[in-house]
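the two lines:
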Amino acid sequence: MAQLDVETSVNKYPIHILENIRHQFNQYVSKDYSAIFIVTDERVANLYLEDVKESLASHPKVFHTVIPAGEQSKSIEAYYQLQTQAIEYGLDRQSLIIALGGGVVGDLAGFVAATFMRGIDYIQAPTTILAHDSSVGGKVAINHALGKNLIGNFYPPVAVIYDIQTLQSLPAKEIRSGYAEIVKEALIADKELFEDVMQEKLNQVTNASLRDHIFRGIKIKTHFVQEDEKEKGIRAFLNFGHTLGHALESEYGYGTLTHGEAVAIGMLFAMDVSNAVFSNCLPVETLRKWLNLNSYPLVLDEINSEKLLSRMKSDKKVSNNHVQMVLLKEIGNPVLVELNDEDIQKHLENFINKMMKN
Amino acid sequence: MAQLDVETSVNKYPIHILENIRHQFNQYVSKDYSAIFIVTDERVANLYLEDVKESLASHPKVFHTVIPAGEQSKSIEAYYQLQTQAIEYGLDRQSLIIALGGGVVGDLAGFVAATFMRGIDYIQAPTTILAHDSSVGGKVAINHALGKNLIGNFYPPVAVIYDIQTLQSLPAKEIRSGYAEIVKEALIADKELFEDVMQEKLNQVTNASLRDHIFRGIKIKTHFVQEDEKEKGIRAFLNFGHTLGHALESEYGYGTLTHGEAVAIGMLFAMDVSNAVFSNCLPVETLRKWLNLNSYPLVLDEINSEKLLSRMKSDKKVSNNHVQMVLLKEIGNPVLVELNDEDIQKHLENFINKMMKN
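prediction for all of em together
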């Protein structure tokens, strides 16, 4: 239960999930690379950079760079600066980039790898729970001032090397953020995983449970990615909870809510809408209680349904100016539904009212 | 003899080569695109933009932008600005970009298409002879301050629409530049084409001959691209003449020599080296005479072999710090040869001496 494989149109790559694997990069990195360039952020550098460099000590050319932690590093300026460093360090087409960190590092360093000399190899080495999701599937991107992830590629890594041990250093907010994506994966594909996670108290989760949940989450992610690499069909189901989630993130400003916290609220909304559209009874209250118990921020302060709708409509997934939402017919049975503005706004208003009361 | 097809790992696209096809874009562009964004440069806009827009008049959303002509438009700033425009015009994943122009427009607009929302469709509509080469094969890129085409993707267009009629408006310098790439294609793959072109006086070339040469050139290009899309093997043969060519372009500053003029000198050098390495007798003098007759600038003023060598070594194709050159065992039989610095420099000095005497 330590390895999964992903098959894409251009390669097949392994996902290694192991405690303390950061000390064994040398076992997974070919000696043939002309140079290795590790990209990481301040927080992760302090904790794990030396371990990784040490494990690669036998390689003659290992460079690194440390970027500021946080979403602002996914800028065109940071992107260009990494390209400059890659050139100055003498990287060529036979070189490797290692993205050591969370989603920001993975997205940015992955997009640099995708476009440096028209594409070189890279390894995703996630150090957050949230990045179990973003590190698999080859979506890499930077932000545009007008929207998140608007500039990027589909470009799979050559491997994902995931040291579960590094998750021990995560603050509670980051654990919440990561678990929201696990809950999402469960809701669209695995009722049992959903029920298991609903039994967990996040500040008491054991390493064994964490590894188990992440493994099952990645397995689901892998399935959707393999079936639909370029997000022309079912991969879109992975956006469950993200329509409102992204809108909340940008409305409140990135950093107020974590990505997962925003998605958590988005999932409650998507379940509410699903119940209304399909007249079914998804366990919204079970999820709401679990989120509350685990200190997810669930209050929508001073939020305006019209503004949210307009945010939702600027998403990449909009088609012909209509919002497309992933809804659930039941747990494990997602569908993509196009909703008109009026209906969305009505649902939003109901939802905001309900949230304010809780 | 108006259409060729290219099969890639991700799609299959047609190359339409026809006189006045710019008036018939509507026949080749699906009505289903949510929006169409034409990118062109000042020179081409004045001549052909209205024709293309007119032919798309029945489409409800057609936008355009005009960039400055010339290599400086392949900058990160111009790239980001096009992304901004694409967002502001409301392009989404179902939209189309048309690159109407020469290699600069094709490379830049193609890279925007490759990375806008992780990749949307685009059409290459070349308007120069040189772009018969760059528009086929999916290489898109912008320049980095430290080197040409260092940031880019392999990203095939959905079609190439090539209006031979637009080549009538090209200045002599551009005709020379384009024909150098046709000669290159001939030398690596088609002796007959080489002999045919050697019979032509470029300022008297007929439309029929031009179409014939371009068609045969693209056919060769297509062959190498299909066999080796990501340039891991034989596609590198298309760089015949480019090792010294690129070095000359950057040494003299882009714009002094056109790309093709630099490649022409590079081919003479590569043939000289081939003759030395393989003790054979390629028709260097035939080519030199033809180049002279057609006013290619063949004098290497104030050039220094050490500087050139260092330029050659900063190329993307360098492997383990050794220059790799495409040489010819005979016409149509290219090989990739790694040369050490000493040998390269010796060849360069001989070549510079010989060029100065002519």
